[in-house]
Amino acid sequence: xxxxxxxxxxxxxxxxxxxxxxxxxxxxxxxxxxxxxxxxxxxxxxxxxxxxxxxxxxxxxxxxxxxxxxxxxxxxxxxxxxxxxxxxxxxxxxxxxxxxxxxxxxxxxxxxxxxxxxxxxxxxxxxxxxxxxxxxxxxxxxxxxxxxxxxxxxxxxxxxxxxxxxxxxxxxxxxxxxxxxxxxxxxxxxxxxxxxxxxxxxxxxxxxxxxxxxxxxxxxxxxxxxxxxxxxxxxxxxxxxxxxxxxxxxxxxxxxxxxxxxxxxxxxxxx
Length: 271
Fold this sequence. Notes:
Blueprint (H helix, E strand, L loop, with lengths): L1 H5 L3 H20 L10 H33 L4 H22 L21 H27 L8 H28 L4 H10 L3 H15 L4 H24 L6 H22 L1
Helix pairs in contact: 2-5, 2-6, 2-7, 2-8, 3-4, 3-6, 3-9, 3-10, 4-9, 5-6, 5-8, 5-9, 6-7, 6-10
């Protein structure tokens, strides 16, 4: 089975990998069928863990290989890294400013993006969907990079990235479905909205893989771009959300370090 996966086209590999990450999002959302609420401390810790995974993935799986690849292609490594990294952050800032969304736990009048009359549930899903875009993109770019044949891009590293992002998608699904269930929405609807936030990942994954396969010289930029987009999401959303309650900050910090360690182990062991 593993051999069959390794022999697939990189675009199909990216698609299957992001289907897996979407499935883990759905698994997290499915907690509403078991419990109506999860303690805030657990939710905050899960978000902190997710932040740690994304920080580690941004460096070990994206930024570092991007810098090495830039050097192998004769580019100026630091310049390529800065342009790609900042480009990813700027792209996410513009998307954040334009796309209507609402972070969990906030009031409707605190919604971001263009003002609309959309329902709270829709805005909550869009908030998580927003940061699933760079995750799907990162997986697609990683699998597309393997086809370049450059030594800094490995199939093991791409698989490690998909596993890591899949792990941190579990709390993201929960972070959408649980607040909706708490507000009185049915279990089925809460689950559907929760898993819907991960639907964008297969699309972003395929786009990312196709993009780098067609334009190999921009591959280092694309890896650094995905890293910048992910770091923006961590700093703008995951860390602030996980540390709203002062009494939970210490455990959230340790959860973040645990998430970083898990992703680092995955990347070093498989990459």
